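FAQ
Q: What does a multi-component entry look like?
A: The components come first, one per line:
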Amino acid sequence: MRTVYVNGEYLPETEARVSIFDRGFLMADGVYEVTSVLDGKLIDFDGHARRLERSLRALDMAMPVSEEELLAIHRELVARNGIDEGMVYLQVTRGAPGDRDFVFPDPDETPQTLVLFTQDKPGLADSPAAKKGIRIISIDDIRWGRRDIKTVQLLYPSMGKMMAKAAGVDDAWMVEDGLVTEGTSNNAYIVKGNRIITRGLSNDILHGITRAAVLRFAREAQMEVEERAFTIDEAKAADEAFITSASTFVMPVVEIDGVALGGGSPGKVAPRLREIYLEESRKAAI
Ligand code: PMP
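Then the predicted structure of the entire assembly, as tokens:
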């Protein structure tokens, strides 16, 4: 049985408890992070901790524990659960004021809820999907306007994955005002020749930690990077496409709305970036 962390305690998952008045449960008033684990070590922990702080600050919340303590909890859970490849999920909410009220509770009276748990995913890095590539559809982006904050309001992304499933494909890219924002749980890219194109950072997308690392590695490898929005038609006519996220790393996209890219198999750029990303991330893992 898994050992999880809840508000200072390590417990068997069946004994972990959060109040029914928790604002995460009642109002999606919480933020989260997912950090991947390779070789029993954390990938890009600092990036995830920094983004957590940024998400919390945007919602007028403080870090529930210091970054050092957060790292210690991550490591303890990885060790206690014997995770070699997988993820650590973290969620912070504004806590349980003991009643339902739209107004934020006084943080001095209502402690935040901090929950962490691991997900064991053997074979995460050596994924068959990464060799074949994934197929996606486009859907309307009807989410709220602060997608840069990593909140637990994941209903629409979840519906998007169900629309993809109903269409017999793997995932969906969201489109707003004719332009691709991002994937349901990942950032979106197209490749034209030696140039990688991805939407620039703004409130419209989550500032992916994997995105930042991949763009840095791409530039170091002398690839051209253009941060601008693109349409689905431009994506369908691209040489390659791919997604990035902490749990998929770099994943080639080989079909968009039924249109095959590069003859329906991964090209050169995305697999190369995946290789570089995995190699460099393993070296820097803590
Ligand atoms: N965009 C969205 C909407 C996401 O949910 C995620 C993953 N949580 C990402 C992008 C990728 O971010 P990261 O590389 O930090 O996992």
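Q: Is there any commentary attached?
A: Sometimes. For this entry: The helical segments are 23-27, 45-58, 67-80, 128-132, 155-166, 209-220, 232-236, 269-284.
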